[in-house]
Amino acid sequence: MPDTLRKPTLDKDLNKFTRIGEATGSLNQFYVAPGLALVFVALCAVFAAVAVTGQPGAVIIVAAAIIGAYMALNIGANDVANNVGPAVGARAMTLVTALIIAAVFESAGALIAGGDVVSTISKGIIDPAAVSDPAVFTSAMMAALVSSAMWIHLATWLKAPVSTTHSIVGGVMGAGIAAAGVDAVNWPTMGGIAASWVISPFLGGIIAAGVLYFIKTAIIYQDDKIAAARRWVPVLIAVMSGTFAAYLALKGLNHVMSISLGLAVVIGIVIGAGSWLVARPLVRRQSEGLENRNQSLRKLFGLPLVFSAALLSFAHGANDVANAVGPLAAIVHTAELGEVATSVYIPLWVMAVGALGISIGLLLFGPRLIRMVGDQITKLNPMRAFCVALSAAITVIVASAFGLPVSSTHIAVGAVFGVGFFREWYTGNSRRRADYVTRHHFDKPDDDAKARKGEDQRRRLLVRRSHFLTIIAAWIITVPAAALLSGVLFVIIRMMIVSG
């Protein structure tokens, strides 16, 4: 063999060392996130120990702080993806930018407008009289926290965005049944929660599809797209601003001051009108010199998407942090006073555990679900992602008006599904789209080839069915799975206490 074709032994050895180094680096990166999460949990334990030193039930409070921190990390890893995932999938912001925005606004929402009072029996799922013994109540809340956190952890690993509210409700229900029997459960309330499994994604999907239909009809398939965008994009921005203002007033600021639905709507109308006046000249200036094509339109929806991601994160932090710290606050109250109350105030250090835990969980583990929601269910662009964000806010307002229990996770993911399934239907059935394509694309010699390509596109599935089925299955089994796991954990905890 010629010398030029023979690889020197030294080069082979160096290549082996290089590959070993790359493998070691990859392995180290795999352990970095779990290691930092463990550090955070340990710091929470130390902080709780310092905060409750000398108080009754200090050991129980420290143990609950550890569990609450673990729960908060999992909420950040799973639930927050719904707020920023569509904007990332639409390329309106980078993943790093989305993580920073979500972490900052989640923490701000939790600390500024987070719930200062929370029901200890989690939304009236369990009759308080059934778990009136402090030791039984504490065991039930611990079992509920651990089971819901473990279920959300598993769902995140499976790339299934699930409702943290449903997880904690299932955990409370399972522990309550194990503690006091089936009769302890408030079944009408559970029926309302079960109805929300259908109501939330259906409403989110329908509204998102309706907004996308309007955008396609009024802007995309118009001969002069730029003129249509100048007319309608400010209106859409005004609707989004007004809806988010009402959403934040109703679901975020309501923790600070009492705001009725009517007042929230008035606030939304005022903010929306102001936003329209500001958006008109800005959109006109931004659209100057743009080509008359869809790629140009996407630039007009980028900035609104960034704001929507920030506002959704703020509102999520204000509301869903109670899922992590509500049972923890109840345990702290029970351990300190030796009695079970129907409502308790959340101490600042407990709220900080929830807020920081959600943000750290998002930064360490959130990218997995952000990519799933934003990129892997269906292809999103800024216009479609705008429909998802607007749908999430509108659906919450509509549901609140009718007193319907809804899940923000189910709404956002349902909106993504709605956009994808609507595009499948619209591509194959819209006469407006067919006429537009015929007028603008089939005027060259290769018309037949383009027609065949258009027919193939009409038959193409735009929503990944495997992800759709996985997520739907996870939604259906969230409450029963969390309940079963919680019941088992409650029995184990009680056995450990009795034997100890």
TrEMBL record:
<feature type="transmembrane region" description="Helical">
    <location>
        <begin position="135"/>
        <end position="156"/>
    </location>
</feature>
<feature type="transmembrane region" description="Helical">
    <location>
        <begin position="30"/>
        <end position="52"/>
    </location>
</feature>
<feature type="transmembrane region" description="Helical">
    <location>
        <begin position="256"/>
        <end position="279"/>
    </location>
</feature>
<dbReference type="GO" id="GO:0005315">
    <property type="term" value="F:phosphate transmembrane transporter activity"/>
</dbReference>
<keyword id="KW-0472">Membrane</keyword>
<feature type="transmembrane region" description="Helical">
    <location>
        <begin position="58"/>
        <end position="80"/>
    </location>
</feature>
<keyword id="KW-0812">Transmembrane</keyword>
<feature type="transmembrane region" description="Helical">
    <location>
        <begin position="92"/>
        <end position="115"/>
    </location>
</feature>
<feature type="transmembrane region" description="Helical">
    <location>
        <begin position="232"/>
        <end position="250"/>
    </location>
</feature>
<feature type="transmembrane region" description="Helical">
    <location>
        <begin position="468"/>
        <end position="497"/>
    </location>
</feature>
<keyword id="KW-0592">Phosphate transport</keyword>
<feature type="transmembrane region" description="Helical">
    <location>
        <begin position="385"/>
        <end position="404"/>
    </location>
</feature>
<keyword id="KW-1133">Transmembrane helix</keyword>
<dbReference type="InterPro" id="IPR001204">
    <property type="entry name" value="Phos_transporter"/>
</dbReference>
<feature type="transmembrane region" description="Helical">
    <location>
        <begin position="300"/>
        <end position="318"/>
    </location>
</feature>
<comment type="similarity">
    <text>Belongs to the inorganic phosphate transporter (PiT) (TC 2.A.20) family.</text>
</comment>
<dbReference type="Pfam" id="PF01384">
    <property type="entry name" value="PHO4"/>
</dbReference>
<feature type="transmembrane region" description="Helical">
    <location>
        <begin position="344"/>
        <end position="365"/>
    </location>
</feature>
<feature type="transmembrane region" description="Helical">
    <location>
        <begin position="193"/>
        <end position="220"/>
    </location>
</feature>
<dbReference type="GO" id="GO:0016020">
    <property type="term" value="C:membrane"/>
</dbReference>
<dbReference type="GO" id="GO:0035435">
    <property type="term" value="P:phosphate ion transmembrane transport"/>
</dbReference>
<keyword id="KW-0813">Transport</keyword>
<protein>
    <recommendedName>
        <fullName>Phosphate transporter</fullName>
    </recommendedName>
</protein>
